[in-house]
């Protein structure tokens, strides 16, 4: 983190402690296991049918209700109803997913497509068939391979037929309009695998790139110029990996072109919903839906792979989407102009009025915390992002946008995604992801910084669990500071620094007990020792020598003659204790104590602006409070991830 940002990040902690509690529903999933096909049988079939939307003047007065077979009959929207034209019912008994596409450069904004589906002879209400709000970033491999624009894919499940409706205009629909029909099988048999909360046995497909590490086609674009101030190094994952259903398990096809990587790593996460039906009844149906969406993205839209990096179903099962997303900063197609350096996580279903389940929120938080933690990003922070722009983007190319690190798709595009209820869940998701990303490395860092050793397995499990449950980071620091191990080490260090000797047994026990009980603050221990007769005698046994030694030991410099004269007069009036308190609690001493804390916890000295804030803070609140603020900062968290 640039030094200019340090004070602001620490200052923010005053108002918003790192591990502050945000209410989240009980994350226990409704199903403890999922059935995953051992082998997906049958190919995904994609059929693209010519679709014609006639001009208003050519529309027939009669509305046909005969079901047409799209394999043998044309699909024409020519029946006028209330200012729109609609198709006859289209047989969909062999498919589960539909979409409408058109040539990439065609303006289809006026179509406003709608759809309804018939199941067991009953029609649903008409609903919008959303024009896709997802586009590749300009210049990337997906943009180079993209074939067509279109609507989002829509899951219709077991519907027997659908009807499409479009705005009736004098021009009709554009040329080369197509209805895409996608069908696949749900395997009858499967194997049971652990739920999304089961552990770290994560399956993943390998990522194929033309150069071994990134796509040669991407060139300078994946230098990540779109993102400001990001280190290029990719760090090891910080949080424990959640259980992720691999591409092999859900039956993914291999990507059809080499995928771009963001050279600067991941800097943010975009949360989406697929906006389809929530009526899927099993994990097998969820996987079928994902397979169909992948086929629509690849075959109808022309992208290299499924656009999303991860998908989470309504039971909280996490699926690896785009190949390699579990281990590499793969650039997806999920938020046009903001794809590079962001991980796209989509909730399977529609979350406009229905809130994502507790299990879904937990899993979205877990995969975001896991992936962003690998790059030292704070899920509760913000990031300056220079957008690449693009169709449907809220911001022109080259605009720098200060985004939440975990943002909703609507924050960057003209879209309702991830739905009102989905968007309302983001604060809880951010808070939970933050705990997941940083809890374990934070525990390891504090043990190393305060105790000079690694954490034992029991301590790691205990404190990680408490942080995940909402305990503030300062609680861990305070508990270590009250431990016998820490207190006795600090007492011994103070004896060596001030009295130039090891503590005797009774002295060590007495001071250790006082520190552990809170009767003596750790920062005041040195102040107490310089008040002792032993220190006075060791300093020379007279007031002038005593003051001179205090300056050397506390302020680490020689005292000016005028300063010695001043404090000798004060001793005559109020005794030696006033000198100890005055020098030890001075702003000059406080600034040195701040430098000490920064050296221990941030591996650097405090900058002048930081001293102006934290010197007075130490004077007023002491070492424990200052430590709590430092370990709650983004800088300390990033350092924790870097080291552990």
Automatic annotation (TrEMBL):
Signal peptide start-end: 1-20
What is the top-level taxon of the source organism? Answer: Bacteria
Asked if the record carries the keyword Signal, the reply is: yes
Query: What sequence ranges are listed for the domain N-acetylmuramoyl-L-alanine amidase?
Result: 254-419
What UniProt keywords are attached to this protein's entry?
Signal
Q: Which residues form the Peptidoglycan recognition protein family domain?
A: 242-390
Q: Which Pfam families did the record assign?
A: Amidase_2, DUF4214
Which InterPro entries is this protein grouped with?
Amidase/PGRP_sf, Amidase_domain, DUF4214, PBS_linker_sf, PGRP, PGRP_domain_met/bac
Q: Mind telling me which SUPFAM superfamilies this protein's record contains?
A: N-acetylmuramoyl-L-alanine amidase-like (SSF55846)
Keyword Signal carried by entry: yes
The family line of this record is: Belongs to the N-acetylmuramoyl-L-alanine amidase 2 family.
Q: What is this protein called?
A: DUF4214 domain-containing protein
What organism, scientifically named, is this protein from?
Answer: Cellulomonas xiejunii
